[in-house]
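Hi, here's the filled form for the chain we discussed.

Project: internal
Contact: R.S.
Residues: 450
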Amino acid sequence: MTRQFWVLIHRYAGLYMAFFLIVAGLTGSILAFRGEIEHWLTPENYDEYYPITIQAKPVLDPFELRERAMALEPGAQCNSVPPHTESGKVFTLACEIVTHKGKDETTEYRNISLNPYTGERIPINLPNPFNEPSLWPVTRKNIMACILLLHYELLLGDEVGLKIFGIAALIWTLDCFVGFYLTLPKFRSNPFPSSANISASHFGRDCRNDGLKKMGSQTKPRSFWQRWQVAWKIKWPSSTQRLNFDLHRASGLWFWPFLFIFAWSSVMFNLRDEVYNPVMKRLFEVSEADPYQTLPQPLYHPPIDFMDAYAIGKRLMAEQAHRKGFTVLKDLGLDYDPVKGHYSYLAHSSRDLTEITTVTTLWLDATSGAFKGLKLSTGEKSGDTITAWLVSLHLVTVWGLPYRMFVCVFGLVISMLSITGVYIWFKKRRTATIKRNIITPVANLSGQVN
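And the returned structure, exactly as it came back:
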Protein backbone atom coordinates (compact mmCIF):
# COMPACT_ATOMS: atom_id res chain seq x y z
CA MET A 1 0.00 0.00 0.00
CA THR A 2 1.35 3.37 -0.97
CA ARG A 3 1.81 6.35 1.30
CA GLN A 4 -0.94 8.15 -0.61
CA PHE A 5 -3.36 5.37 0.38
CA TRP A 6 -2.65 5.99 4.08
CA VAL A 7 -2.98 9.74 3.53
CA LEU A 8 -6.51 9.15 2.21
CA ILE A 9 -7.33 6.82 5.13
CA HIS A 10 -6.10 9.43 7.62
CA ARG A 11 -8.00 12.18 5.83
CA TYR A 12 -11.40 10.50 5.75
CA ALA A 13 -11.03 8.96 9.19
CA GLY A 14 -10.29 12.43 10.51
CA LEU A 15 -13.31 13.91 8.76
CA TYR A 16 -15.58 11.27 10.35
CA MET A 17 -14.04 11.79 13.79
CA ALA A 18 -13.78 15.57 13.70
CA PHE A 19 -17.16 16.44 15.18
CA PHE A 20 -16.95 13.72 17.85
CA LEU A 21 -13.44 14.68 18.93
CA ILE A 22 -14.20 18.39 19.05
CA VAL A 23 -17.19 17.70 21.31
CA ALA A 24 -15.27 15.17 23.43
CA GLY A 25 -12.25 17.45 23.74
CA LEU A 26 -14.13 20.57 24.78
CA THR A 27 -16.42 18.78 27.23
CA GLY A 28 -13.51 16.73 28.56
CA SER A 29 -11.65 19.92 29.44
CA ILE A 30 -14.59 20.89 31.64
CA LEU A 31 -15.05 17.40 33.11
CA ALA A 32 -11.43 17.35 34.29
CA PHE A 33 -12.72 19.53 37.14
CA ARG A 34 -16.18 17.96 37.37
CA GLY A 35 -16.08 17.38 41.13
CA GLU A 36 -15.14 20.94 42.00
CA ILE A 37 -17.67 22.41 39.56
CA GLU A 38 -20.52 20.23 40.88
CA HIS A 39 -19.69 21.12 44.48
CA TRP A 40 -19.81 24.79 43.52
CA LEU A 41 -23.00 24.60 41.44
CA THR A 42 -25.01 22.23 43.65
CA PRO A 43 -23.69 22.14 47.22
CA GLU A 44 -27.10 20.84 48.35
CA ASN A 45 -26.39 17.53 46.59
CA TYR A 46 -23.69 16.63 49.12
CA ASP A 47 -23.87 15.42 52.72
CA GLU A 48 -21.62 18.23 53.92
CA TYR A 49 -24.40 20.71 53.17
CA TYR A 50 -26.52 19.19 55.95
CA PRO A 51 -24.42 19.16 59.13
CA ILE A 52 -25.69 17.13 62.08
CA THR A 53 -25.23 18.43 65.61
CA ILE A 54 -22.59 16.30 67.30
CA GLN A 55 -24.04 14.55 70.34
CA ALA A 56 -22.48 12.98 73.40
CA LYS A 57 -23.91 9.54 72.65
CA PRO A 58 -22.28 7.27 70.05
CA VAL A 59 -23.58 6.97 66.50
CA LEU A 60 -25.60 3.94 65.50
CA ASP A 61 -24.06 0.99 63.71
CA PRO A 62 -24.33 1.26 59.88
CA PHE A 63 -26.05 -2.13 59.69
CA GLU A 64 -28.67 -1.07 62.22
CA LEU A 65 -29.21 2.13 60.23
CA ARG A 66 -29.71 -0.02 57.14
CA GLU A 67 -32.49 -1.96 58.86
CA ARG A 68 -34.17 1.28 59.92
CA ALA A 69 -33.96 2.69 56.40
CA MET A 70 -35.59 -0.42 54.94
CA ALA A 71 -38.36 -0.22 57.55
CA LEU A 72 -39.11 3.35 56.45
CA GLU A 73 -39.62 2.36 52.80
CA PRO A 74 -41.86 -0.64 52.02
CA GLY A 75 -40.21 -2.79 49.37
CA ALA A 76 -36.81 -1.16 49.83
CA GLN A 77 -33.62 -3.16 49.28
CA CYS A 78 -30.49 -1.41 50.55
CA ASN A 79 -27.79 -3.63 49.09
CA SER A 80 -24.80 -1.40 49.66
CA VAL A 81 -23.59 -0.36 53.11
CA PRO A 82 -20.56 1.77 54.04
CA PRO A 83 -18.30 0.30 56.74
CA HIS A 84 -18.57 3.17 59.22
CA THR A 85 -20.92 5.86 60.47
CA GLU A 86 -19.39 9.32 60.81
CA SER A 87 -20.38 11.59 63.68
CA GLY A 88 -21.79 14.96 62.68
CA LYS A 89 -22.56 13.79 59.15
CA VAL A 90 -25.74 12.60 57.45
CA PHE A 91 -25.85 8.83 56.88
CA THR A 92 -27.13 8.13 53.36
CA LEU A 93 -27.98 4.79 51.77
CA ALA A 94 -28.73 4.14 48.10
CA CYS A 95 -31.80 1.91 48.04
CA GLU A 96 -33.71 0.03 45.39
CA ILE A 97 -37.48 0.42 45.77
CA VAL A 98 -39.44 -2.38 44.09
CA THR A 99 -43.19 -1.90 43.70
CA HIS A 100 -45.70 -4.37 42.27
CA LYS A 101 -48.82 -3.37 40.37
CA GLY A 102 -50.58 -6.52 39.31
CA LYS A 103 -48.10 -8.47 37.20
CA ASP A 104 -45.96 -5.42 36.54
CA GLU A 105 -42.87 -4.69 38.60
CA THR A 106 -41.22 -1.28 38.68
CA THR A 107 -37.88 -0.37 40.20
CA GLU A 108 -36.95 3.05 41.50
CA TYR A 109 -33.61 4.08 42.95
CA ARG A 110 -33.77 6.43 45.90
CA ASN A 111 -31.41 7.75 48.53
CA ILE A 112 -32.55 7.53 52.15
CA SER A 113 -30.82 9.92 54.56
CA LEU A 114 -30.82 9.31 58.31
CA ASN A 115 -29.62 10.98 61.48
CA PRO A 116 -26.64 8.81 62.55
CA TYR A 117 -27.50 9.22 66.26
CA THR A 118 -31.23 8.54 66.24
CA GLY A 119 -31.95 6.79 62.96
CA GLU A 120 -34.65 9.34 62.14
CA ARG A 121 -35.21 10.18 58.51
CA ILE A 122 -33.89 13.54 57.31
CA PRO A 123 -36.16 15.05 54.62
CA ILE A 124 -33.54 15.76 51.99
CA ASN A 125 -33.42 14.44 48.45
CA LEU A 126 -29.84 13.66 47.48
CA PRO A 127 -29.50 12.47 43.84
CA ASN A 128 -29.09 8.75 43.26
CA PRO A 129 -26.40 7.88 40.65
CA PHE A 130 -28.50 5.01 39.28
CA ASN A 131 -31.32 7.31 38.18
CA GLU A 132 -31.26 8.92 34.74
CA PRO A 133 -30.88 12.68 35.18
CA SER A 134 -33.49 15.05 33.79
CA LEU A 135 -31.87 16.88 30.88
CA TRP A 136 -34.43 19.59 30.20
CA PRO A 137 -34.62 22.38 31.04
CA VAL A 138 -30.90 22.84 31.59
CA THR A 139 -30.23 24.32 35.02
CA ARG A 140 -27.33 24.52 37.42
CA LYS A 141 -28.54 21.21 38.89
CA ASN A 142 -28.22 19.17 35.71
CA ILE A 143 -25.77 21.05 33.49
CA MET A 144 -22.82 18.85 34.48
CA ALA A 145 -24.88 15.72 33.85
CA CYS A 146 -25.73 17.12 30.40
CA ILE A 147 -22.07 17.81 29.69
CA LEU A 148 -21.12 14.29 30.81
CA LEU A 149 -23.72 12.64 28.57
CA LEU A 150 -22.73 14.94 25.70
CA HIS A 151 -19.12 13.89 26.26
CA TYR A 152 -19.60 10.20 25.55
CA GLU A 153 -23.00 9.71 23.89
CA LEU A 154 -24.00 13.09 22.39
CA LEU A 155 -27.19 13.06 24.49
CA LEU A 156 -28.53 10.40 22.09
CA GLY A 157 -28.76 7.54 24.59
CA ASP A 158 -27.02 4.19 24.94
CA GLU A 159 -28.54 2.58 21.87
CA VAL A 160 -27.39 5.24 19.39
CA GLY A 161 -25.02 7.79 20.91
CA LEU A 162 -22.88 5.31 22.81
CA LYS A 163 -22.34 3.17 19.72
CA ILE A 164 -21.56 5.88 17.16
CA PHE A 165 -19.21 7.54 19.63
CA GLY A 166 -17.64 4.11 20.21
CA ILE A 167 -17.10 3.65 16.47
CA ALA A 168 -15.41 7.05 16.36
CA ALA A 169 -13.20 5.99 19.29
CA LEU A 170 -12.23 2.77 17.50
CA ILE A 171 -11.35 4.67 14.31
CA TRP A 172 -9.39 7.13 16.45
CA THR A 173 -7.40 4.29 18.00
CA LEU A 174 -6.44 2.83 14.63
CA ASP A 175 -5.81 6.26 13.13
CA CYS A 176 -3.27 6.99 15.87
CA PHE A 177 -0.92 4.54 14.15
CA VAL A 178 -1.71 5.83 10.66
CA GLY A 179 -1.06 9.41 11.71
CA PHE A 180 2.20 8.44 13.39
CA TYR A 181 3.36 6.63 10.25
CA LEU A 182 2.62 9.67 8.09
CA THR A 183 4.93 11.86 10.20
CA LEU A 184 7.89 9.63 9.35
CA PRO A 185 10.18 10.87 6.56
CA LYS A 186 9.80 9.25 3.17
CA PHE A 187 12.23 6.49 2.27
CA ARG A 188 14.84 7.64 -0.27
CA SER A 189 16.82 5.27 -2.42
CA ASN A 190 19.13 8.20 -3.28
CA PRO A 191 20.05 10.26 -0.21
CA PHE A 192 20.79 13.44 -2.21
CA PRO A 193 17.74 15.69 -2.39
CA SER A 194 18.73 17.20 -5.76
CA SER A 195 20.00 14.12 -7.57
CA ALA A 196 17.99 14.91 -10.70
CA ASN A 197 19.51 18.37 -11.00
CA ILE A 198 22.98 17.14 -10.14
CA SER A 199 22.92 14.72 -13.05
CA ALA A 200 21.50 17.30 -15.46
CA SER A 201 24.06 18.55 -18.02
CA HIS A 202 22.07 21.69 -18.80
CA PHE A 203 23.41 21.46 -22.36
CA GLY A 204 26.97 22.20 -21.30
CA ARG A 205 26.12 25.33 -19.37
CA ASP A 206 27.04 26.07 -15.78
CA CYS A 207 24.52 24.80 -13.23
CA ARG A 208 23.95 25.95 -9.67
CA ASN A 209 24.27 22.31 -8.54
CA ASP A 210 27.66 21.78 -10.18
CA GLY A 211 29.28 22.27 -6.79
CA LEU A 212 27.32 19.39 -5.32
CA LYS A 213 28.11 17.34 -8.37
CA LYS A 214 31.85 17.80 -7.84
CA MET A 215 31.57 16.99 -4.14
CA GLY A 216 30.07 13.59 -5.00
CA SER A 217 30.52 11.09 -2.20
CA GLN A 218 31.98 13.76 0.11
CA THR A 219 28.45 15.11 0.80
CA LYS A 220 26.87 13.31 3.79
CA PRO A 221 23.17 12.47 3.46
CA ARG A 222 20.89 13.69 6.23
CA SER A 223 20.13 11.05 8.86
CA PHE A 224 16.66 9.69 9.57
CA TRP A 225 16.36 11.81 12.73
CA GLN A 226 17.56 14.96 10.96
CA ARG A 227 14.77 14.55 8.43
CA TRP A 228 12.16 13.48 11.04
CA GLN A 229 12.87 16.27 13.53
CA VAL A 230 11.15 18.74 11.19
CA ALA A 231 7.87 16.99 12.00
CA TRP A 232 8.32 17.74 15.72
CA LYS A 233 8.68 21.48 15.21
CA ILE A 234 6.38 24.39 14.43
CA LYS A 235 7.81 26.87 11.97
CA TRP A 236 7.25 30.44 13.07
CA PRO A 237 6.58 32.81 11.43
CA SER A 238 4.87 31.02 8.55
CA SER A 239 1.77 31.12 6.39
CA THR A 240 -1.61 30.21 7.88
CA GLN A 241 -1.69 26.95 5.97
CA ARG A 242 1.83 25.97 7.05
CA LEU A 243 1.09 26.93 10.67
CA ASN A 244 -2.03 24.76 10.73
CA PHE A 245 -0.14 21.86 9.19
CA ASP A 246 2.72 22.15 11.70
CA LEU A 247 0.31 22.44 14.63
CA HIS A 248 -1.52 19.34 13.44
CA ARG A 249 1.59 17.25 12.84
CA ALA A 250 3.79 18.38 15.75
CA SER A 251 1.02 18.32 18.37
CA GLY A 252 0.00 14.86 17.21
CA LEU A 253 3.55 13.64 17.79
CA TRP A 254 4.16 15.30 21.15
CA PHE A 255 0.83 14.15 22.57
CA TRP A 256 0.75 10.79 20.79
CA PRO A 257 0.96 8.54 23.92
CA PHE A 258 -2.02 10.26 25.52
CA LEU A 259 -3.93 10.38 22.25
CA PHE A 260 -3.68 6.59 22.09
CA ILE A 261 -4.49 6.16 25.81
CA PHE A 262 -7.64 8.25 25.59
CA ALA A 263 -8.67 6.70 22.27
CA TRP A 264 -8.40 3.11 23.50
CA SER A 265 -9.94 3.90 26.89
CA SER A 266 -12.87 5.48 25.01
CA VAL A 267 -13.35 2.16 23.24
CA MET A 268 -13.31 0.53 26.68
CA PHE A 269 -16.13 2.77 27.92
CA ASN A 270 -18.29 2.68 24.77
CA LEU A 271 -17.61 -0.70 23.14
CA ARG A 272 -16.46 -2.80 26.09
CA ASP A 273 -18.24 -6.06 25.22
CA GLU A 274 -18.10 -5.62 21.44
CA VAL A 275 -14.42 -4.68 21.00
CA TYR A 276 -12.40 -3.93 24.13
CA ASN A 277 -12.86 -7.17 26.08
CA PRO A 278 -12.31 -9.53 23.10
CA VAL A 279 -9.11 -7.69 22.10
CA MET A 280 -7.74 -7.56 25.66
CA LYS A 281 -8.53 -11.25 26.24
CA ARG A 282 -6.67 -12.08 23.05
CA LEU A 283 -3.58 -10.07 23.97
CA PHE A 284 -3.44 -10.20 27.77
CA GLU A 285 -4.55 -12.19 30.78
CA VAL A 286 -7.74 -10.69 32.23
CA SER A 287 -10.28 -11.64 34.87
CA GLU A 288 -14.05 -11.42 34.63
CA ALA A 289 -15.76 -8.47 36.31
CA ASP A 290 -18.13 -10.81 38.17
CA PRO A 291 -17.72 -14.36 36.86
CA TYR A 292 -20.47 -16.02 38.91
CA GLN A 293 -23.74 -17.38 37.58
CA THR A 294 -27.16 -16.02 38.43
CA LEU A 295 -29.51 -17.94 40.73
CA PRO A 296 -32.78 -19.46 39.45
CA GLN A 297 -34.58 -17.02 41.77
CA PRO A 298 -33.18 -13.87 43.45
CA LEU A 299 -32.23 -14.39 47.10
CA TYR A 300 -33.42 -11.21 48.81
CA HIS A 301 -33.09 -12.50 52.39
CA PRO A 302 -29.88 -14.55 52.62
CA PRO A 303 -29.07 -16.76 55.63
CA ILE A 304 -26.01 -14.61 56.39
CA ASP A 305 -26.97 -11.02 57.19
CA PHE A 306 -24.94 -7.89 56.43
CA MET A 307 -23.28 -7.66 59.84
CA ASP A 308 -22.03 -11.26 59.80
CA ALA A 309 -21.04 -11.00 56.13
CA TYR A 310 -18.95 -7.92 56.88
CA ALA A 311 -17.06 -9.73 59.65
CA ILE A 312 -16.48 -12.76 57.41
CA GLY A 313 -15.38 -10.57 54.50
CA LYS A 314 -12.94 -8.66 56.69
CA ARG A 315 -11.37 -11.92 57.87
CA LEU A 316 -11.18 -13.44 54.39
CA MET A 317 -9.65 -10.24 52.97
CA ALA A 318 -6.95 -10.30 55.66
CA GLU A 319 -6.15 -13.92 54.75
CA GLN A 320 -5.89 -13.09 51.05
CA ALA A 321 -3.70 -10.07 51.78
CA HIS A 322 -1.31 -12.29 53.72
CA ARG A 323 -1.28 -14.93 50.96
CA LYS A 324 -0.82 -12.55 48.03
CA GLY A 325 1.40 -9.96 49.70
CA PHE A 326 -0.70 -6.80 49.65
CA THR A 327 -1.89 -4.42 52.37
CA VAL A 328 -5.50 -3.47 53.09
CA LEU A 329 -5.46 0.31 53.56
CA LYS A 330 -9.15 1.05 54.07
CA ASP A 331 -12.52 -0.71 54.21
CA LEU A 332 -14.91 0.68 51.61
CA GLY A 333 -18.06 -1.25 52.44
CA LEU A 334 -20.15 -4.27 51.59
CA ASP A 335 -22.43 -4.89 48.61
CA TYR A 336 -24.95 -7.67 48.15
CA ASP A 337 -26.16 -9.09 44.84
CA PRO A 338 -29.46 -10.98 45.33
CA VAL A 339 -29.41 -12.14 41.71
CA LYS A 340 -26.14 -14.04 42.22
CA GLY A 341 -26.46 -14.68 45.94
CA HIS A 342 -23.12 -13.34 47.08
CA TYR A 343 -21.61 -10.44 48.98
CA SER A 344 -18.82 -8.24 47.66
CA TYR A 345 -16.44 -7.01 50.33
CA LEU A 346 -14.78 -3.86 49.01
CA ALA A 347 -11.47 -2.42 50.18
CA HIS A 348 -8.78 0.01 49.13
CA SER A 349 -5.48 -1.86 49.06
CA SER A 350 -1.87 -1.32 48.07
CA ARG A 351 -2.74 -2.88 44.68
CA ASP A 352 -5.17 -0.06 43.85
CA LEU A 353 -4.13 3.06 41.96
CA THR A 354 -6.78 5.24 43.56
CA GLU A 355 -9.64 4.83 45.98
CA ILE A 356 -12.11 6.39 43.55
CA THR A 357 -11.82 4.32 40.36
CA THR A 358 -10.03 1.12 41.42
CA VAL A 359 -11.05 -1.20 44.22
CA THR A 360 -10.02 -4.58 45.62
CA THR A 361 -13.06 -6.90 45.60
CA LEU A 362 -13.61 -10.15 47.50
CA TRP A 363 -16.69 -12.29 46.88
CA LEU A 364 -18.21 -14.57 49.54
CA ASP A 365 -21.22 -16.84 49.39
CA ALA A 366 -24.30 -15.39 51.10
CA THR A 367 -25.51 -18.83 52.17
CA SER A 368 -22.36 -20.53 53.44
CA GLY A 369 -19.96 -17.61 53.92
CA ALA A 370 -17.36 -19.44 51.82
CA PHE A 371 -14.72 -17.57 49.86
CA LYS A 372 -15.64 -17.36 46.16
CA GLY A 373 -13.00 -15.15 44.58
CA LEU A 374 -10.77 -12.08 44.69
CA LYS A 375 -10.05 -9.39 42.12
CA LEU A 376 -7.02 -7.12 42.43
CA SER A 377 -6.75 -3.97 40.35
CA THR A 378 -3.05 -4.35 39.55
CA GLY A 379 -0.13 -6.68 40.04
CA GLU A 380 -1.79 -10.00 39.22
CA LYS A 381 -3.16 -10.08 35.68
CA SER A 382 -1.65 -7.82 33.04
CA GLY A 383 -4.97 -7.02 31.37
CA ASP A 384 -6.49 -5.93 34.69
CA THR A 385 -3.50 -3.68 35.38
CA ILE A 386 -3.78 -2.02 31.95
CA THR A 387 -7.52 -1.52 32.41
CA ALA A 388 -7.03 0.01 35.86
CA TRP A 389 -4.54 2.50 34.45
CA LEU A 390 -6.77 3.35 31.48
CA VAL A 391 -9.75 4.02 33.75
CA SER A 392 -7.73 6.12 36.20
CA LEU A 393 -6.02 8.16 33.48
CA HIS A 394 -9.22 8.81 31.54
CA LEU A 395 -11.22 9.76 34.65
CA VAL A 396 -8.33 11.90 35.98
CA THR A 397 -8.19 10.24 39.40
CA VAL A 398 -4.39 9.94 39.61
CA TRP A 399 -1.53 12.41 40.15
CA GLY A 400 -3.71 15.13 41.63
CA LEU A 401 -4.16 18.70 40.41
CA PRO A 402 -1.20 18.80 37.96
CA TYR A 403 -2.64 15.91 35.94
CA ARG A 404 -6.14 17.40 35.92
CA MET A 405 -4.70 20.66 34.60
CA PHE A 406 -2.85 18.70 31.92
CA VAL A 407 -6.02 16.86 30.86
CA CYS A 408 -7.92 20.16 30.76
CA VAL A 409 -5.35 21.49 28.27
CA PHE A 410 -5.17 18.14 26.48
CA GLY A 411 -8.91 18.31 25.74
CA LEU A 412 -8.31 21.59 23.93
CA VAL A 413 -5.42 19.99 22.02
CA ILE A 414 -7.72 17.20 20.82
CA SER A 415 -10.20 19.77 19.52
CA MET A 416 -7.38 21.75 17.90
CA LEU A 417 -6.10 18.64 16.08
CA SER A 418 -9.53 18.04 14.58
CA ILE A 419 -10.04 21.69 13.61
CA THR A 420 -6.61 21.98 11.95
CA GLY A 421 -7.17 18.66 10.19
CA VAL A 422 -10.45 19.87 8.70
CA TYR A 423 -8.78 23.15 7.72
CA ILE A 424 -5.94 21.33 5.91
CA TRP A 425 -8.46 19.16 4.04
CA PHE A 426 -10.55 22.21 3.10
CA LYS A 427 -7.54 24.15 1.74
CA LYS A 428 -6.28 21.19 -0.31
CA ARG A 429 -9.74 20.53 -1.69
CA ARG A 430 -10.14 24.18 -2.61
CA THR A 431 -6.74 24.25 -4.32
CA ALA A 432 -7.57 21.09 -6.28
CA THR A 433 -10.90 22.60 -7.38
CA ILE A 434 -9.19 25.78 -8.60
CA LYS A 435 -6.64 23.72 -10.58
CA ARG A 436 -9.40 21.71 -12.22
CA ASN A 437 -11.24 24.88 -13.17
CA ILE A 438 -8.06 26.27 -14.75
CA ILE A 439 -7.10 23.09 -16.61
CA THR A 440 -10.56 22.29 -17.96
CA PRO A 441 -10.99 25.50 -20.07
CA VAL A 442 -7.49 25.03 -21.50
CA ALA A 443 -8.31 21.46 -22.45
CA ASN A 444 -11.56 22.57 -24.09
CA LEU A 445 -9.74 25.30 -26.03
CA SER A 446 -7.16 22.77 -27.21
CA GLY A 447 -9.94 20.53 -28.45
CA GLN A 448 -11.53 23.38 -30.37
CA VAL A 449 -8.21 24.26 -32.08
CA ASN A 450 -7.72 20.67 -33.16
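Let me know if anything looks off before we file it.
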